[in-house]
Amino acid sequence: MRRETETGSEHLVYDNKFEGEKRMFRKKPILAISSLLILTLSLVGCGGKPAATTEKEVKPIIVKFAHVVTPDTPKGQAALKFKELAEQKTNGKVIVEVYPSSQLYGDKEELEAAQSGNVQIIAPSVTKLVGLNPKFQYTDLPFLFPNNEAVYKFFASDEMKGLMNSLDKYNLQGLAVWPNGFKQFTNNKRPLVTPEDFKGLKFRTQAGKVLEAQFKALGAGSATIAFGETYAALQQGTVDGQENTYNNIDTQKYQEIQKYLTVSNHGRLDYMIIVNKDFWSGLAPDIRKALDDSMAEATKFSVEQAELLDKKSMDNLKKSGKIQFTELTPAQLGVFQETMKPVYAQFESVLSKELIDAAIKAGKK
Ligand code: LMR
Q1: Mean pLDDT throughout 253-275?
Q2: CA separation for the pair 81, 85 (Å, rounded)
Q3: Protein residue with least CA distance to atom 5, ligand 1
Q4: Given the CA of residue 244, which atom of ligand 1 is nearest to it?
Q5: The dihedral sign for the CA sequence 231, 204, 219, 314
Q6: 23-27, 28-32, 345-349: which has the minimum mean pLDDT?
Q7: Which of 47, 137, 199, 259 is deepest in the core (most CB within 10 A)?
Q8: What lines the ligand 1 site, CB under 6 Å?
Q9: Among 99, 244, 268, which is best to mutate for testing ligand 1, by the most ligand atoms less than 8 A from CB?
Q10: How many A from CA of 128 to the centre of ligand 1?
């Protein structure tokens, strides 16, 4: 918006000139009237509507980028970085308006809005793409990736390219994958040390059957709730707990309404950056290149931010003293892995053996 005003600069300069004329008019009326006349005549001489022509020439391309988290998250920061770079590299020909915190669209609406072109860029967590391609639920297989490096390797794989390409038929294009981090369990009832502790509890999930099955394997219930509605659902006791990254827990302030956190690193939360395909392919080649370059740089930045903010938020949560941390021993973690393992066989036909194997391979040295 700020830049939108700036980019109307030609138009504003014209107005300001006019303001200047008005100011002059007060001081030196005759001179002011004559210069106004000269200005008017010269404009008429040029054949018509100067302001409109000038405005048309400088009218920027508006790119709306909507997401659901706060600005102080890896996604929030990388979206702002993309804005900065895109506007810089296109010399203001493109203005990126970033709408955080579900301000423009929430989980339920953003995909449709991107398909119809009401928003140009969105960045949903990959699991929220389950309705377009159920294979995106690979990310929810319990304990699939041992560390960040394995995840990044998978992002660069042919399988990930295939997943991105599968969006084409929905008039969507996957541009990049941005990481957030590993998920931890939180709840309001008791410390979760063994799978037994999950019995009878209900957890919020982002989307999809894999997450439902994961909680079922632990003896817990689950409910899919939009991110923007999760705080209220936890506060009101609609659900007892949830799973998320340190940074989302911290920036959503779940520590105010959740008493226990188990360090489990059992699942991933990462994002697919998606554009409306018609919009993207309709851009002039130089603009498109500038935006592609900006996206590549913002993607590198997102990796740095994810690692930095994950650690920072973990420290914040610990320091807050509001949420009790449970660290599991390798043996205790092993019990969770065994309990949740049947989810793999259950979803092999949906996800495909090739995809699961490629993800597992990314974790091997
Ligand atoms: C969630 O719904 O928990 C996350 O996908 C939110 C996000 O975008 O990080």
Answers
A1: 98
A2: 6
A3: 125
A4: 3
A5: negative
A6: 23-27
A7: 137
A8: 68-69, 125, 180, 206, 227, 244, 248, 269
A9: 244
A10: 9
Ligand 1 mean position, distance from CA 168 (Å): 23
Residue nearest to atom 1 of ligand 1 (CA): 227
Percent of the chain with pLDDT over 70: 84
Q: pLDDT band for position 57 (50/70/90)?
A: low
Question: How far apart are the CA of 26 and the centre of ligand 1, in A?
Answer: 59
Residue 38's pLDDT band, with cuts at 50, 70 and 90, is very low
Query: Coil, strand or helix: which one is 59?
Result: coil
Amino acid present at 211: L
Ligand 1, atom nearest to 180 Cα = 9
Which residue carries 């999809």 as its tokens? 208
CB 127 within 8 A of CB 140: yes
Q: In terms of C-beta density within 10 A (0-12 exposed, 13-18 middle, 19 or more buried), how is residue 360 classed? A: middle
* C-alpha Rg value of the chain to the nearest Å: 26
What whole-number distance in Å separates Cα of residue 185 and Cα of residue 220?
12
Please report the domains of the chain, with CATH numbers, ordered by start residue: 58-185+224-362 (3.40.190.170)
pLDDT above 60 for 48: no
Residue at token pair 């973990």:
314
Mean pLDDT estimate for the chain: 88
**Cα 64 to Cα 79: distance, rounded to the nearest angstrom:** 11
